[in-house]
Each structure stands twice: as structure tokens, then as C-alpha cells.
Amino acid sequence: MSQTKPLQQASPRPGNACLMHGMAERLGADVERAAASGEISSQELTDMVTRCGNCTQHDACIIWLLDHQGAQDMPPDYCLNTQELHYVRAVQGQISAN
């Protein structure tokens, strides 16, 4: 991933990490493993949680996660981490194929 300036969030909201990890799980992107293996940096993982926290669609996200149990190909249109989650899934898919 590209090096970007860390995102700023005024105050942490409970549940941001849970929503982001839930979305990652649905998409088959193991973000914790990606950070541990260097596929993404720990700052990028933090930025993903912050980006989720800055989203205005938390209620819609919770409903989407409840309505979409199991593996999914695409997150909802409003997901602010779509690009990052697809990147992690693609990189992990390449590693698994080798």
C-alpha cells in the first residue's frame, strides 16, 4: 500500500474496530495477519479502524453485517475501507496460491 499520512479522529468511538474487523471477515481479508506479516503496516491497520470510525454509516453497517452472514465478494457501497480490504484479500490470495 502507499505511504499516507495517518488519519486523525477527534475521539475514538467504541465498536470501530469490531465493525472494521467484521467487514474484513466477511470479505475474507485477515487484516491482523496482514499487519503481522508486513502485508500492511500497523499504521495502515490503525488508519482502517480510524476510517471506519469516521464513517457516518455505522447503523447501516451493523445491519449489513447482520444481513450478510458468511463470505461476501463486495462490501456495501459506503464502506470507506473497500480498497484496503480488497488489497489485503488479493495479496493473501496470491500467497495462498503459491
UniProtKB/TrEMBL annotation:
InterPro entries attached to this UniProt entry: DUF6455
Pfam annotation, one family: DUF6455
All residue ranges annotated as the DUF6455 domain in the record: 16-90
The protein's name: DUF6455 domain-containing protein
Taxonomic classification: Bacteria, Pseudomonadati, Pseudomonadota, Alphaproteobacteria, Rhodobacterales
